[in-house]
Amino acid sequence: MTEIRQIVLAKRPEGDVTADCFRAETAASPVLADGQILVRTLFLSLDPYMRPRMTELNSYVPAFELGKPLTGGAVGEVVETRNPRFAKGDIVNGLLNWATHTLHDGRGLRKIDATGVPLSAHLGVLGMPSFTAWYGIKHICKPKAGETVFVSAATGAVGQVAGQLAKLAGATVVGCAGDEEKCQWAVREAGYDACFNHRTERDYGAVLDKLCPKGIDADFENAGGRIFHAVFARMNDFGRIAFCGAISEYQDKEPIAGPTKMFTIVQRRLNLQGFIISDHVALMGDFVNEVGGLLKQGKLKARETVIDGLANAPQAFMGLLKGENFGKLVVKV
Ligand SMILES: NC(=O)c1ccc[n+]([C@@H]2O[C@H](COP(=O)([O-])OP(=O)(O)OC[C@H]3O[C@@H](n4cnc5c(N)ncnc54)[C@H](OP(=O)(O)O)[C@@H]3O)[C@@H](O)[C@H]2O)c1
Questions:
Q1: Can you give the pTM of this predicted structure?
Q2: Which numeric CATH code is attached to 4-124+303-332?
Q3: Where are the chain's structural domains?
Q4: Quick one: pLDDT at residue 79?
Q5: Ligand 1 contacts CB of residue 244 (under 6 A)
Q6: Strand 71-81 to strand 91-97: parallel, antiparallel, or no bridges (unpaired)?
């Protein structure tokens, strides 16, 4: 009999996520109805958007329910099936519970080829974060040779791919990350022209003036807050801002004010576009062809942090919101 271990949302955080927001539980083995499958989780993706889901009740994605398992992108193996679409042993990618096993109707789960790349890559460099980077760079930032592109959270799951794609397009690419090791990796391995440490640098305006002397033509925005305000003030005419996320604001108890002088958008004729990658799934095939091709040619580096054991997921998630991960954060369940 399969006993399910799972982590449920015990309370909604106010400000920083704390350990008591989570509770580990066990659940009895489910009996499958017609059409259902039981999926054993292999890798669980931890992503910043899960923080707003713990509290935001009116967003583009439903909030997690109190007392119910959190859910997230995952790779798993079908271990029982009463659904003709799935066979025992199939490896699938999609939303699963923060649990050792998920009872599922199969909708939204995609079978994947378990050979070729490590399974965790389907959650990172061949998965949602990388797709997000590709979409934001290709369809919003549209960098050209000679332009300057800025990427915040430059070595994160999204940022590391965004920076490399902008570089491959011939742009000068500048980023920021949360420690010296990450900044060095960005320059030495991912090809950034420069990367500054946003935790030790006090004057973001001054460092951007130094590293981006010709201003900024495109911003791939992951951090928001003070970093974004400094970038916004340095955008060039006809600049593009792909507003992907604002991780520096996710734990704020009160919303912070935006950048000063919004008339800049008019003066500089900026295109500031927010986007959610799930609106663009029709382009997934194009992404896989292009980015998969770059990976095969060795033109793309990918860094990940793998945490062992479901029980460590809450701690790892709290760490992600403080920059303790380096690259894509996954839990090996
Ligand atoms: N729009 C979409 O569809 C979509 C899809 C995926 C992700 N996103 C967004 O993209 C952004 C990056 O996501 P990801 O998956 O690549 O996450 P990630 O980089 O794997 O993890 C988050 C990183 O953000 C950085 N960070 C944390 N607190 C910060 C702060 N106060 N100021 C600046 N940086 C901070 C940390 O790196 P450092 O050590 O460098 O600070 C941390 O490692 C997030 O805002 C996320 O919500 C959006």
A1: 0.96
A2: 3.90.180.10
A3: 4-124+303-332, 128-278
A4: 97
A5: yes
A6: antiparallel
